[in-house]
Amino acid sequence: MTNSIEFFLLFYYVQVLYLDPILAGTALLLSLVFDGISDPIVGAFSDKYHSKLGRRHPFMYASAIPFGLAFYFLFSPPESYFGISLFLWLTFTAISLRLSLTFFLLPYYALGAELTENHTDRTSLVAIRSLFAFIAAMILSIVAFTFYFKATDTYPQGQLNPEAYPAFALTFAVVSVIVILIATRGTQSQIPFLHTNNKETMITDSFYHFYRYFFRELGAILKNRAFLSIFLVSITFFILSGLQRALVLHMNTYFWALETSKIQYLFYAFFASTVIGIPFVKYIINWLDKKRTMYVGLSIILMSFVLPTILRLIGAFPDNESSLLLPALIFSQITTGVGMAIMVVGMGSIMQDIPDNQELQTGKRQEGLIFSFIGLASKTTSGVGHFLAGLTLSLISFPTGENIKPGDIPDDVIFNLGLVYGPSVLIFGLVCFYFFSYYNITRESHEETLKTLNLRRLDAKNKIT
What we know:
globular
């Protein structure tokens, strides 16, 4: 669902509210950097926290209402706000949304590594979680375009209608609160079976001491080759995806000059193919193992992301008046969805294995910190992607104003937009391949790790008794 929000957010503030693209990109960068900095705090505290509701669930329950309020206000700024005041509103509400989401997602993801240690079962859990996440995102897109961003005589491209966004936000704020509470309550019965707190206490008398602890643990975890590989892949991939998500509505509205009804089909094709593909990923992983499966997913995504744009730039893709354009773009979104299904399930499953590998090396269970480090990398670099998107729109002098139509954009500006969206994304993707080559956990090595850890735990239990 957060990915769907990102599809709309930059477009809304730049093209609908006329906020300067650099200010909008800076606000989103600041919110994601703040979010990344807060991740280790939440992750570390959820690792060490003790209550009748366990380590994770108090944080998840606490996130629900703040997330709903922040969601609504993010898309409902006061009408009198513009310029700096609108920039500050976007920054504050985006930070609030991200912070409340961190309180839910970090403990929620950490639970996945605790619910089961089985290699295949973890993949199935991630697949189920990802399936429902993308179904929610697909429903959000369908409802948004069908009921809120409908084409009208005044706004043939409904996503330019400023009156549609507050109602859209209110609906999904309420739905989000309900979903968070259901997800938290639904896993509460598993609390007695989850891992208990680490014995080591955490220094928390000041932020200075906390971040000394944080960077000390980060340094230790970065010595883990598997983690370092995924950490660097996350940095690179989320710059790529942040840039892509921030500019996708600009591309569909102006580069491809699609009507709102046709843009819907692209979103539906992407989400539907992702949802359909997710249940099959575990079979691909069982066949190829996780590393080779990730290579397949990343290859598919890169080809689908950049090929249509690059082909258009060299004049080898159907033009905007062609009847072949929409089918070609829909096919590209279908293959992108398949690649995304593989990447989401594969990455999620890999992340469940790294805490076991780290416990083998250090003797510590640190799911919360490990997920927070990846969150720090992904969110700050996704923020860089958003900032680069805003910077791009400013540097290429992309026009903003009331109801800007595709024909109003100069050809050289359109070309430059495609140049950023296509070839630059490809570069980041190729770097992902390089970093991922260092990942070294296999099915066999993970099984050996679990055997060793189980023997250690049994020995420790015998010593206590």
